Amino acid sequence: MDRRVIVRYSSSFKREVVSQLESGRFSSIREAMAHYGITGRATVKRWLGQHGRNALCPKVVRVEKPNEKDEIVELKKQIRQLKEALGQTQAEKLIGEAYLEIACEEMGLDIEAFKKNADGPRFIRAKKDRR
Length: 131
What we know:
Elements: H1 11-23, H2 29-36, H3 43-51, H4 66-107, H5 111-118, H6 121-130
Helix pairs in contact: 1-3
């Protein structure tokens, strides 16, 4: 069985690595990791967040106007409403198809033949007569 080796670093060692990075001795986090033999991918980056000035950690800052924030909330609300409406429409379509299937079964008709006949001129004429 493979045994993992867990390495624990002291606080002073962590601060030393961070200070070396911040002073510019190493040009990148990878270079510092290679120099000190640190194998964890996010270890030094986490140390920078804990012990450093956070100058080397990239940050994303989003600046928006108050109306933009409201707009985002409204758009999310609209998306949610549209998804609900779409789901309801799909459910109604499935129910309609099921009713058609049952009706055709009871009348002894083939569903495809019924659909072809319904698309013919009689159906269109019946729609016009209703107006």
